[in-house]
Fold each of these.
Amino acid sequence: MALFNQGNVRFESGHQLRLIDYQFPLKSARADVDIGKIDLLGVFEDGTLAVVELKVLGNREDRRIGLLEGLIYAAIVEANLGKIAAEVTAMHGCLVMPVQPKILLVAPPRFWSDTTLYPPVAGIRGLASEISGAVPIDIVLLSLRGGQLTDLGLDGTRPTLQNDVLLSPVL
């Protein structure tokens, strides 16, 4: 939530991602039960949507789970792109291009460096590359740097980060 409240995140490359929704519910009709929720939905400067799957420090699940969640959510977003684009434009005033969304799997550096997690980073990077070549879809593994949490928001205030966040590729 604190990351969403920041509004934008910057990439090491200088690009920016505007964060437009947190826990974005996926459903085909208002009366449907949620299919799932995208951790963060963002829009790049060129109007491409980004499905952001966040993993926190201490998460012990198989790293492929986050990749699979991102793929499922991106497929649903792509299948409903017209409707989602219209909603984003109406609510946030930003144009969404009619192109396949990008998948961003984002976690703190220690999540990526933890050698006890499976598969190893080289394995998840190879799998993401293999999927990107077959589908094709952009899948980016990113390390979340900076952004010290200053307020958890437990007293009804908005969770906030002390400084800016920088996303850098996982090497």
Amino acid sequence: MQPRARIRPVRSDDLDRLEEWRNDPDWSEFDWYGFRPPGELRRRFDATGLLAEDDGYLVVELTDGTVIGYVAWHAVYYGPPPTSRALNIGITIAPGQRGKGHGTEAQRLLAEYLFAVTRVERVEAGTDVDNLAEQRALEKAGFTREGVLRRAQFRNGAFHDLVLFSRVRGE
């Protein structure tokens, strides 16, 4: 039986691997936004442990301890803060671990975690209109498709349309 995915806080010994993945244009077709400054995650880790309420990272690992990716979140606002704040999540899973349900499980766990430790009412995720696997994963994780955000994301030298999904507290 395949080990299941779980999420956990980032540890200091995870930082080099996470920074390497974030700076590898071949690691994820839909998660490459350009090179990031060396040590950026380490500086944030030293300040917040990468667990701030408005933004953060958690490691995705299998129950056998194998690290296979990460999930992240950041705040978005639909009116005056703090009452109109939502959290937008993202995920990156190692190429050899995709298509096994790990991303679905990690995103479901992340939404549950964020509802448990924050007062946010809405957790959302956007993904490229061509990323059909991620759209299926979000739906399986309990997210509802809301619509398309036209030319909302600049990545790889061009603007891309995103499909927006959400979960609200209690769903």
Amino acid sequence: MPRPRQAEPLQVIVQGRHVEVTPDLRRYVERKLGRLRRHFDQITQAQVVLSHGRSSRGQGYRAEVTIWGDGVVLRGEQASTDVRASVDGVVDKLEKQVARVRSRLIRKRRIDAARTKQRRRAASEAALRGSPTELPPEVVRTKRFALKPMTVEEAMLQLELLGHDFFVFRRMETGEVNVLYRRRAGDYGLIAPE
């Protein structure tokens, strides 16, 4: 039985340039950015820079936000006379970007599903005709992620938290890329280069 997928907690880094980042302001920013995860739960990290100073439009507050998740990087900025209004404005802009990315991903998954269905139908028709021509398998998804150095024990914990059957990581002791996998017996196996 597949394990339910647990979303990683959203890591928010808030920096201030000529702006004091109070705990209340930090909570406000985190709450506003949390809205984005309702639309795209793969967002894992956000960096926020709040600044105050002169610009071509006069004195004001600027909010610059960069978010990362599932191989996607989105960025937005907004300036106004109030720091919270700047945060609201940039989150509104990012919500529109997230909606566009999400609809593209959904469209791509539907197209991939249709192609897979078409390939299966063609393979079953070929089998019914007795034709030995079988379509070769193809890569239907590519996932990119950063390889963070960690111990085997940390990799085991990540494997359990993600609920996957394998986990690719950079081993802290050697710096090599290793693969930790779950065996049928319930224990683990480790693939390491020679």
